[in-house]
Write a structure and sequence with these properties.
Elements lengths: L15 H9 L21 E2 L1 H4 L14 E2 L2 H9 L3 H11 L15 H18 L3 H8 L10 H14 L12 H13 L16 H18 L3 H12 L1
Antiparallel strand pairs: 1-2
Helix pairs in contact: 1-9, 3-4, 3-7, 4-7, 5-6, 6-7, 9-10
């Protein structure tokens, strides 16, 4: 089934098994106010343009002055169509500069820029990230072969730049979401009732994760960004 959506919300195919269990067993979270997303306070988010120059299409078009790798700055770069610059900031924000080959490798910067531009157009027209997910994770021509981790983080900010702010893709990672949150969510569920996991890079697996995020966000009348930031803050 699909989420009933307004024009500024995305359409997500919800996994029935995950939806049922997540509705019956809400994730226990402390407090009633959403946690700030990493970088929203501007602390510990310095961004050195020179260090990233070889990762962006030239000539670059960075703002003048000191840059900080904050969600607002990332969204601004996407909004201006500076896709490889936004990507560099996403990698910095998500501490993914440690594995540059998984993002850039031998991929041409112009191809990455073009693919991200196509993703933006597809999302804008369809209100869905399904085709964009394939462009980012697929292994065909003009597809980037990325993991779910960098794909979800990139699409999160790209969708927010397109004004899909209520239910944008939530970032997924191995250290917190898959290693800590998933076992806590799974443990009280009887074996025969457990939904399939959130592993791998398929859109189906990611949608199972987004189903849980969507259910928990709706229970609190929060955005998917707010619920993921709160979960990450509590479990990190």
């Amino acid at each position: 089934m699909l989420v009933v959506s307004k024009s500024n919300t995305l359409l997500w195919p919800l996994d029935p098994s995950t939806e049922r269990v997540a509705s019956e067993r809400p994730l226990s979270l402390q407090g009633s106010v959403p946690a700030a997303q990493f970088g929203e306070d501007g602390k510990k988010c310095g961004f050195n343009v020179e260090s990233w120059s070889r990762r962006v299409v030239q000539p670059s078009a960075w703002p003048i002055g000191l840059l900080k790798c904050t969600p607002d700055q990332i969204i601004s770069q996407f909004s201006k169509g500076h896709y490889t610059q936004a990507l560099a900031m996403v990698a910095c924000w998500g501490v993914m500069w440690r594995q540059p080959n998984s993002i850039w490798g031998q991929r041409r910067l112009e191809m990455i820029e073009h693919t991200l531009s196509d993703c933006a157009q597809s999302i804008r027209e369809s209100r869905s990230v399904a085709d964009a997910w394939t462009m980012l994770t697929g292994s065909g021509n003009e597809q980037l072969g990325w993991t779910a981790v960098i794909s979800s983080k990139t699409l999160h900010f790209l969708c927010r730049s397109l004004e899909f702010v209520q239910n944008p893709p939530a970032a997924i990672d191995g250290a917190v979401i898959r290693t800590k949150v998933w076992p806590v969510f799974l443990s009280p569920i009887p074996v025969g009732q457990r939904p399939r996991n959130w592993e791998g890079n398929t859109f189906e697996a990611y949608c199972r994760y987004m189903t849980a995020i969507t259910v928990w966000a709706n229970q609190r009348n929060w955005s998917t960004k707010q619920i993921e930031a709160t979960i990450f803050d509590q479990f990190k």
